[in-house]
Design a protein that fits this description.
Shape of chain A: globular
Strand content of chain A: 15-25%
Number of helices of chain B: 8
Oligomer: heterodimer
Largest interface: A-B, 40 and 36 residues
Radius of gyration of chain B: 18 Å
Strand order of the largest sheet of chain A: 3-2-1-4-16
Largest sheet of chain B: 7 strands, mixed
Distance between the termini of chain A: 51 Å
Distance between the termini of chain B: 19 Å
Number of strands of chain B: 11
Largest sheet of chain A: 5 strands, parallel
Strand content of chain B: 15-25%
Structural class of chain B: alpha/beta
Helix content of chain B: 25-40%
Radius of gyration of chain A: 23 Å
Number of strands of chain A: 16
Number of helices of chain A: 17
Order of helices and strands of chain B: EEHEHEHEEHEHEEEHEHH
Strand order of the largest sheet of chain B: 6-5-4-3-7-8-11
């Protein structure tokens, strides 16, 4: 660091946010982004390592020092283009990637100071490009005259499609819902990822020549076999792990019990928070219990707050140290007045005579020996049962494989839990020409890991199709 | 329907792959069906997705009783037709509140060996419910190999109760509330044989003797308040 460090600020440039009291009354984005001056200041903190660990920490291998240097030089558009060489969805990843466990976790500066705010800078470059004339479309590649079908338009599908289109394939994405984006539109709330940004990045993927067909449920409308008969030479499956899990406790089918998927889809995709202007209803709830400790649980709790809930409880069976949710999301949830009931396990949901939720009974837990996940196993404390009065319960304990497509695809090898079995390096499935990546392979994970898997699969599809001549 | 619209599940009444058309019969019960009813020929629906759910199980069972209630007659029609084509003897029972609301009588007759009509008020056919006609048949010694019923949840419940003592396999097509209808949200969950199933991907057809109809009826009422609110906002 040769004396440079003495001039480097130990702290990253803070980013302005909507204050909690204000933001719980709207669905607008919470962090407000860097100004150009702030971005340059933060970018100058980067040490420009020769052998940058951050690039290895990035599942899609963005040339991080290069784009940060461009920001430091005030070349914002060039910075965005540099990111887009590797990542078609930078405004999204800048917002929802867990940088603190990836690129920023291994940042050299982070050994002594706060690491460079790589995520914020990625977001800044992408936002600047979008707000200043929009993206530059790369020159169209030489067409290879081969068609590839991509199933699902979430992070994995969009990435595979963008990569394959850039290689010269004719790519069609088949999306089951009426809007493209998958979890980015139905799952992640507006206040964390504005839908206009998803739309803009989807538009960018389309501008590469990708065709997106919405309202197309593969497995019902067409089978994978039929896609081949329609002239597609390869298929990428990126359908996510969209089937909600429930706890299997009494009372879970009462009215007022939602899966997080349902609650968030009503609010995000269908805009039920604007009912009755938008036609999809949602029970806003005055006292809401959210069960789970992941990012989705935080999203659901914070959505409930914005929909007008007076009390929102987050019920999690382990302690905060074991919580899978990002620290940032937990902090924001607490700032917004979400009440955490840690080491607490719901045992039953109690209903009234009309089949509506009126309370949830829980039991306190203590931590025992580590379990197979390496986290200390929660054990119920006998006799510690207690009840919380609530009118809404949101179950956010994770999702599992949706059986719809696998069930209709004979010969597709699945795990016991219904996930698709693939070769890890290539995403190749048991069916020739069929590749898969993202949550339908790994189970619930992050946006960026799905994108990394999709990138590897796109490469493998290219090799497969080139080899075929 | 429109950008602000909701997603609702409807059942096909008929389809023509060559002509590229599908036909549906719906009843104006909520915001979306009211909007749908206002459409004129040539108007466009913003989004349409399908087919969804598992196909009806059609086989040569022998003698099949097909029961349709209200707008459910439109949904039982293609099933009765397929049962007939598969070589079954088809006895159909269709019912409505009153004669004016009875639909597709001629169509049902054309695919049935025998058709019984009921109306609640007796304005046409046998006075009473479809279950009354079914009970007459069973008490009269009719042996059926299968019963398929589509209609209001309460009708399907009582059809199932009627056939239970006779041990006749009874298939019902459930009309749960749905959102995405692709297995993603779970709002359509029902209890079948004590296990939770999603109507959209595991159904819509289930064994009527195993369905918890009281739960279904409760869950169908989830949004009555909101239905009222949005109807009031329209006035």
């Amino acid at each position: 660091m040769r004396g440079v460090s003495s001039r480097i600020s130990p702290k990253r440039v803070p980013m302005a946010e909507q204050p909690p009291g204000e933001r719980i009354r709207n669905f607008m984005e919470v962090p407000l982004g860097y100004t150009p001056e702030q971005a340059i200041e933060e970018a100058r903190r980067c040490l420009q390592c020769r052998d940058p660990p951050c690039v290895k920490g990035c599942p899609v291998e963005i040339d991080i020092p290069a784009f940060i240097r461009l920001i430091a030089e005030g070349k914002f558009k060039e910075a965005a283009l540099k990111i887009k060489e590797k990542n078609a969805l930078p405004a999204i990843c800048g917002r929802v990637c867990p940088q603190e466990t990836q690129c920023e976790a291994v940042c050299t500066l982070g050994k002594r100071f706060e690491p460079v705010a790589i995520g914020r800078l990625e977001r800044f470059a992408a936002d600047w490009e979008r707000e200043h004339g929009g993206p530059t479309i790369p020159n169209p590649p030489v067409k290879r005259g081969k068609k590839v079908a991509v199933i699902g338009s979430g992070p994995a599908g969009l990435t595979a499609a963008a990569d394959l289109a850039k290689m010269g394939y004719d790519v069609t994405i088949f999306e089951a819902l009426h809007k493209p984006g998958g979890v980015l539109v139905y799952g992640i709330p507006e206040f964390r990822l504005p839908k206009a940004i998803v739309e803009a990045e989807v538009e960018y993927v389309k501008s590469l020549g990708v065709e997106i067909r919405t309202d197309s449920v593969i497995g019902r409308l067409y089978s994978i076999q039929e896609l081949f008969e329609m002239g597609y030479s390869a298929v990428f499956i990126g359908i996510g792990a969209g089937s909600p899990m429930f706890m299997g406790i009494p009372g879970e089918n009462l009215n007022g019990v939602y899966s997080a998927n349902e609650y968030l889809t009503r609010s995000n995709l269908m805009k039920a928070y604007l009912f009755p202007k938008y036609h999809t209803p949602i029970k806003t709830g005055k006292r809401v219990a959210v069960i789970g400790g992941g990012n989705v649980a935080m999203d659901a709790a914070r959505t409930a707050r914005r929909l007008g809930a007076e009390e929102v409880y987050l019920i999690y069976r382990r302690s905060e140290a074991e919580m899978p949710a990002r620290i940032e999301e937990r902090e924001r949830a607490k700032e917004e007045g979400i009440i955490f009931h840690l080491l607490t396990l719901p045992v039953r949901i109690i209903g009234d005579e009309k089949g509506r939720v009126k309370a949830i009974e829980c039991i306190r837990m203590e931590l025992g020996e580590p379990d197979e996940s390496g986290r200390r196993r929660p054990i119920p404390i006998k006799g510690s049962e207690f009840t919380i009065e609530v009118d809404t319960v949101i179950v956010a304990i994770g999702t599992t494989a949706n059986p719809l497509l696998p069930r209709s695809t004979p010969g597709l090898k699945l795990t016991e839990d219904g996930y698709i079995v693939v070769d890890e390096e290539t995403g190749k499935t048991s069916l020739e020409g069929v590749y898969a990546g993202g949550d339908i392979v790994t189970g619930s994970a992050t946006v960026i890991s799905a994108m990394g898997a999709a990138r590897r699969a796109a490469r493998a599809i290219h090799e497969y199709l080139s080899g075929k001549g | 329907m429109v950008e602000e619209g909701e997603r609702i599940p409807l059942t096909l009444y008929d389809w023509d792959p060559k002509g590229g058309t599908i036909s549906m019969v719906f009843q104006e019960v909520g915001k979306t069906t009211r909007l749908l009813a206002k459409m004129a020929a040539g108007d466009r629906i913003l989004n349409l997705v399908g087919p969804l759910g598992l196909p009806s199980h059609v086989d040569r069972f022998g003698r099949v009783v097909c029961i349709g209630g209200g707008v459910g007659i439109a949904a039982i029609f293609p099933i009765a037709r397929a049962m007939k084509l598969a070589g079954n003897e088809v006895i159909s029972i269709i019912g409505a509140r009153t004669a004016d609301l009875l639909i597709l009588e001629g169509e049902m007759r054309s695919v049935s060996d025998r058709l019984i009509v009921t109306t609640d008020d007796g304005s046409k056919g046998r006075k009473g419910f479809v279950t009354d006609a079914l009970r007459d048949l069973l008490e009269g010694g009719l042996r059926a190999d299968r019963v398929v019923a589509v209609g209001p949840a309460v009708m399907m419940k009582f059809v199932s109760e009627t056939t239970r003592p006779y041990g006749i396999k009874t298939i019902v097509s459930l009309n749960s509330i749905m959102l995405d209808a692709t297995g993603m949200c779970g709002v359509c969950r029902v209890s079948v044989g004590g296990r939770t199933k999603f109507t959209c991907v595991d159904g819509p057809e289930f064994d009527g003797h195993e369905v918890d109809f009281d739960l279904l009826l409760d869950r169908l009422n989830q949004y009555v308040e909101e239905e009222r609110r949005i109807a009031a906002a329209d006035c």
